[in-house]
Please model this.
Amino acid sequence: MRWQPGDGFFWRPEPRAEAFRTDDLELEADVVIVGTGPGGAAAARTLADSGVRVVMLEEGPAKERFRPNQSTVMRYHMQEGGAMVATGSTYMPIAAGRGVGGGTLINSAIAWRCPDEVLDGWTAPLQDHRYSSANMRPVYDWLWEYLGVWETRPEISGENNDLVVRGVRALGWEGGYLSRYTPQCIGCGTCFYGCGTGGKASVNHNFLVEAVENGVRIQADTKVDDVLVTGGRAAGVVGRMFHPETGEAGGRVTVRAPKVIVAAGGIGTPRFLKGISTDLGPAVGVGLHTHPGNAVFGVCKHEVNWWKGATQGAWCHVPGFPGVLPHTSSLPPEVAMLSLAPLGIGAAEAIRLMPHLVGLLVMISDASSGTVGRWPDGRANIGYDFLPSDVDRIKAGMVAGARVLLAGGADWLFCAVSGVGRVSSAEELEARLAPATIRDFTLYASHPMSTCRMGLDPNTSVVRPDGRAHAVEGLYLADSSIFPSSLGVNPSITTMAMSTVIAQGILSSG
Model:
C-alpha cells in the first residue's frame, strides 16, 4: 500500500533476534548474511519471500537502544564506538551504524534515487545493464511504496528546515523539502539517536520483520571472524558472540551454508575481508568514497531551535556546481557544544546562541578517494587524501549555503573553518575561505562506499556485476561497498535497491 502522511499505522514490532549466549551455536542454512543493515535486510527479505532458508549475523545489539543522548548511540549503534577517523590529508571522522537495522537506526532516512547519469555510467564498464536507470526505476518505485517515502511536510519540518526552504525559493534555485522514509514522523528531531516514536521506516521495522516472519533467524551480538571455503567455494562463516554490556566472550557461532552474503557496509565489509583466511584480491579496501563536507551556520534574531523538526528536511542544488548537495544540518545540543568549542565559542556563549542557530551541511560527490585496511586489533585503518578540486567544491558549496541562509533570514554566519570567524555576507565568507587549506576544516563524513567495488577485472574490483566475488564462488557482497563510483546522494535507498537486485539474481541462478 502507499503510506500517506498521518494515515494508517506504520509501526511494526522489532523482529525477533537472538542475543548473547555462552554456549556454542551451530546452524545450517541456504544463505548466511553478515550484517542486518539496508543491504543485508533487503537481500534477506527477497530471499526469504521465496522460501530460502536464511540466517543473519549481526555484531550489534538485538534491540534498538534508543536514548535521547549521543553517548548511547556511540556505544551501541556506531561501529567502533563512533571513533573511526580517516587520516591522510587531515583527520576526518567517519560514521557507520551497527545493530539489527544497521545504519538506518540512526540516519535521517533521506530518500534519494541514484542519479540516472551515475547509473547509466556504470553500464559500459560493467558490460551489464541490470543497474541502468531504466531497469532500476521500478525497483526504486517499489521501495518508495514499501518504505512510505514522502516529502517533509511543513507542519513537522521545524524552522531550521523552513528557513532553508525560504532561502532556496528566494534565490530561485532548485530545491525545497526533502523526501524521507519517515511515514509517521512527528518532527521530534531525534533521528540521529534512533526513533523513539515509530515514525521512521528503518529496516528493523519492515524488511527484517517480513524476513523473520518468513523464517529468517537473526543472531545478534556476534562478530564474524572468517568465511569457510571448501574447494574454492563458500561453505559458511564462523564467529563468536560477545556480551553487549561487558564485552565478555561467549559461544562460538558456526553457520554452514553454500552461499554467503557479506553486507557489513562500506567500512565494515573491507575491514572484515582484510581479516579472513582467503585473499579476495588487491581491490579489497581500495577506492573509498565518503561524501565529505563541512557546514555553514547561521545566527538568527528569532529562535530556531534546530533540534526540533525533521532532522534533515530541506535541500538545494547549486547552479553550476554538479555534485555539490547542501542540505539541512541539525546537531544534538551536546554535539553542537563540542563543535563550537574549537571555533573559540565558549560554553556560555554557545548556550546563548544555541536556540538561534540554523545549519546547512554541504556534501560533495568526491573525486578524492581513500583506503580501508585493518589494524592488528581488528579496527579499521582508514586513509583518505583530498584532491584540490574537491576542496574548492566544498568551499563553493559553503558560499552557496551562505547565500541560502542569508536569503532565508539568518542575520550573520560562521563555519567550522579555522580563521574564518564571523561574517555577514557570502562574499565575505568566500574571501576568508580562499586561503584555507583542508587542514583548516573541521570535517565530517558518512556514507562510506565503493571499497569493494564491482567490475570485470579482479585486479581493480572485488565482485562481478551480479555481486559474486571474483575469487570465491558462492560469496556475495551486497552493501554500499560495491558501488562502482560515488553516488553524490545519500546511499541507503540505492543500497536497498542494488541488494534486492543481487538477491533476485541469486534466486534466478538457483
Notes: The first strand starts at residue 25 and ends at 28.
